[in-house]
Design a protein that fits this description.
Order of helices and strands: EEEEEEEEEEE
Shape: globular
Helix content: under 10%
Number of strands: 11
Radius of gyration: 14 Å
Length: 130
C-alpha cells in the first residue's frame, strides 16, 4: 500500500507562487504516473497535471498551462507542483494521486479521470486571496 502525503499549501496573494510536494512511503511510487487534482468547495474534483513515471512527459489542464509545472525526483520519491501567477480561481484542496496501472508506461495517454487513480493523499489547502 502506497501512502502519499502532500505538503506546501497555504495562503498566498494573487500573483504569488507556491510549490506543493507529494512524498510517498514506497519505492514503487517512482514507477507510477502521478497526477495532481484539486477540488474547490461545491465543485467536483478536477484534473490539474500528470507526469509519467520517468518524468519525461507532462500534461496539464488548460486552466493551468503555462503557470503550473509538474516535476519529480525519483531518488527522493517525490513529485512537485510549482504554481506561479496564482489567482483566486486556483483556491482549492490539492491532492496528489498515483496510477499503479501506469507502472513503467512510456506512451502518451495518461488518464485525467480521478477514478483511475488508486493511491491518494489527504490533500493540502491552497487559498489565493485577491
Amino acid at each position: 500500500q502506497v501512502q502519499l502525503v502532500e505538503s506546501g499549501g497555504g495562503l498566498v496573494q494573487a500573483g504569488g507562487s507556491l510549490r506543493l510536494d507529494c512524498s510517498a512511503s514506497e519505492r514503487t511510487f517512482s514507477t507510477y504516473a502521478v497526477g495532481w487534482f484539486r477540488q474547490a468547495p461545491g465543485k467536483e474534483r478536477e484534473f490539474v497535471a500528470v507526469i509519467s513515471w520517468s518524468g519525461s512527459r507532462q500534461y496539464y489542464a488548460d486552466s493551468v498551462k503555462g503557470r503550473f509545472t509538474i516535476s519529480r525526483d525519483n531518488t527522493k520519491n517525490t513529485v512537485y507542483l510549482q504554481m506561479n501567477s496564482l489567482s483566486p480561481n486556483d483556491t482549492a484542496v490539492y491532492y496528489c494521486a498515483a496510477d499503479s496501472a501506469s507502472a513503467y508506461y512510456t506512451g502518451s495517454a495518461y488518464s485525467r479521470n480521478p477514478d483511475e487513480y488508486d493511491y491518494w493523499g489527504r490533500g493540502t489547502q491552497v487559498t489565493v486571496s485577491s
